[in-house]
Every structure is written in C-alpha cells, then in structure tokens.
Write a structure and sequence with these properties.
The N terminus is likely disordered. This protein is an alpha+beta fold and about 375 residues long.
Length: about 375
C-alpha cells in the first residue's frame, strides 16, 4: 500500500505506512521526518496574512531563549499558568533534528547535550544537525540506537541544556497532555489533548515492526516531524516520546501514540552503558491466526498466535515449539494477536523462563522456554 502526502511535501524513503494484516497497520504512519521546508499557507476566504512576519521557528514565546541559555534544569511550571506556561518552560528542552533527507524532533536527556529521539528519525545517519528553541543550530552525532523500541541518542555540540523531568510511572487515562515538536517542519509547535489509552499495540504491525506495542495513546495531534518529540502532562513532566499516528485518510480522528517515558529512560540508560539495549528473545516469527489458517491447521475455532517460523537454536526451538503451532497463552495471559505476544515479551528479561499453552492439531501442550538476550544483528 502506498500513500501520498498533501500540499506537495516530499516524503523521505523511510517515511511511510506499515503494511500489515489489519487496516490500522496499513494506515498507521510513523510520525517521521518530513521535508525541511514547511508547506506554504492555504488561502481562506476572509483572512489575510499581510503584515505578518512570524516564522514557524518563532512560534514559542520570547521567554524561551533566556531559559535555554541559562543552562539550568527546566523550571517547574506553575499550574495556575496553564498550557502557555507549560509550553514556555518546556520548549527549550525540545529540539528539531535535521538529517540529509528531512527532519524530526528530540528531547533533552542530559545537560551536557544528550538528546533522545526515535531511531527512525536518525536511521541511516551518523551526523545530524540539532536546532533549539532559541534559534541556535549545532552539529550532532548519533551515539547509539535501538530499533526494537525505536529509540536513539544524539550527542549535540552544546552544554548547559535544561533537562526536563521524565515521569517514572504511566499517566492516567483522561489527564491532559501537550505534544511539543516540529510537525511538517513547523518548529516549536504545541498541540494539546488528553491521554486516550494505555498499553496500546497496533494490530497488524508485528510483521514489520517490534516497536509498536505497549504505547500511550493520545488525541493531542501528532503529525510527520513530531517523531521523537515530547508528550508532557499538566505538571510539565515528560510522559512519552512521540512515535506514530493513524492519518485521517484511514478514518481516524486524533489517534496518536507515544513511547512511555519510563521505557525511554530505561533504554537510554542501557544505550549509555554499552551502546545496546537488552531485550528478551524467543526466536520465532508470530503471525495472525485467521479462520482460514485455523482451518488449514485443523484446529477449528481457536484464538492465539500462529508460529510462522522458528529459530531452531533459539529458545522457542529448544522448547519444542514448531512452525504451525498456535500459542494460546503465555504465563496465563491470552495471546489474541502477534502484537500481544510482543508486548508480553517486552515485559520479560533475558534469563526468564516462560510457559506457553500450545495448540498443535488436536493436541494441547504445555511448553517452557528460557528466554535469552536478543542477538545483535
């Protein structure tokens, strides 16, 4: 499936939809890089832009420049100030990342210039340019990345940055959320909404991505270029890193997704330690169990995840799991989709032993697998 971008925007090769078994996966778009020039304004009747000299990069209030230059942690916002004060205080901690083919967003992770962003923003690049809310641009070096969680670290050539607070727990459904980033090249843009859901996985995405599981859902608008930017709560804490959205062309209305801040911090610390992040590895390729596949396997009506292939030397192969098996549950948790299996594995560690209920033809099996660290590819 292909997509077209509106208003003549150029689409980098890595910006597109994720093909999958479900309409959501076929339509869902990583909030990835876009062309470096934002689209021109669309004329509307009764409106005029004459005399306006405000550029997209000047969208935040003038107070942000002083805050960014101060080199202090981002000040705690006064709740009485509402969203404007939240944006003013947090904008110096959110950056724009420019690559050879487009741009994305990022968030300050440490005062010495370390930036956290999405892996798909910097994919294929070792050097980038980092733009700040005060207008300064500096060189940046890709330090490490983790495609499993779609996170990456960039070292910017700038010190004394305001580090925001990263929330260690999940937000509550219904609480307010503000997204900061550079959608479609409009730097320092803020959009607002609420937290719409937790532990979201995108149906049909497992065949193309390991990252679209256990996400935060928000109706605060996320667009191309927001990738790697900040989702913040009404206390000014980072609660997520913008990841993906389902476009209106799929019939969606404000369906955006973010990586939880706690996940981002855990992966960032692992990447800082040795350049890699640790992930539990089962060693199989999961697939959707359709009625047609169930009939071919001779298992009748059933729910679960069909095993498409197995690494014979991996944990699944050693546990006796075979291609064509149906994994019905893992540690008592029903597996109703491949993405559910990936989400459950995300919460496990290498060295853990996990039990599976397996359907093989007319047999029901109980098998145990000893998870290992995901091999480096």
């Amino acid at each position: 499936m292909s997509i077209s971008t509106s208003q003549g925007l150029r689409r980098p090769a890595r910006f597109g939809t994720l093909a999958g078994a479900a309409v959501l996966a076929a339509s869902l778009t990583l909030a990835a890089c876009t062309s470096q020039d934002p689209p021109g304004p669309t004329e509307t009747s009764g409106a005029s832009t004459a005399g306006s000299s405000t550029s997209p990069s000047a969208a935040t209030s003038s107070g942000t420049s002083a805050s960014a230059a101060a080199g202090n942690p981002a000040p705690a916002p006064d709740a009485a100030g509402g969203i404007p004060e939240l944006v003013e205080n947090l904008a110096p901690s959110v950056v724009t990342i420019f690559t050879e083919s487009g741009l994305g967003s990022g968030v300050v992770y440490s005062e010495d210039g370390l930036i956290i962003t999405n892996e798909h923003v910097i994919s294929g690049n070792t050097r980038v340019e980092v733009g700040f809310a005060d207008g300064q641009r500096v060189q940046g070096t890709v330090k490490a990345s983790d495609p499993v969680t779609d996170l990456a670290l960039v070292q910017a050539d700038r010190k004394g940055l305001p580090k925001p607070t990263y929330q260690s727990t999940l937000p509550r459904v219904g609480e307010g959320a503000v997204v900061l980033g550079s959608p479609l090249g409009f730097e320092n843009t803020a959009t607002a909404g609420i937290i719409s859901g937790l532990h979201r996985s995108i149906p049909g995405s497992a065949s193309n991505s390991l990252s679209l599981v256990d996400l935060i859902q928000t109706d605060a608008p996320i667009s191309p270029g927001n990738s790697g930017g900040a989702v913040i709560n009404m206390r000014g804490e980072i609660i997520g890193i913008s990841e993906a959205y389902i476009p209106p062309s799929a019939g969606a209305v404000s369906l955006g997704f973010a990586i939880p801040a706690a996940t981002a911090v855990q992966v960032a610390e692992e990447l800082l330690a040795d350049g890699t992040a640790e992930h539990a590895y089962l060693g199989l390729t999961p697939g959707e169990l359709t009625p047609q596949i169930a009939d071919q396997l001779g298992i009748g009506e059933s729910t679960g995840v069909v095993v498409l292939s197995v690494d014979e030397d991996g944990p699944a192969g050693r546990a006796g799991i075979r291609p064509g098996d149906v994994l019905e549950s893992m540690e008592g948790v029903e597996l109703n989709a491949p993405e559910k299996l990936l989400a459950e594995l995300r919460n496990r560690n290498p060295g853990d032993t996990v039990s599976f209920k397996v359907k093989r033809g007319d047999q029901s099996l109980d098998l145990k697998a000893d998870l290992i660290d995901r091999p480096t590819q």
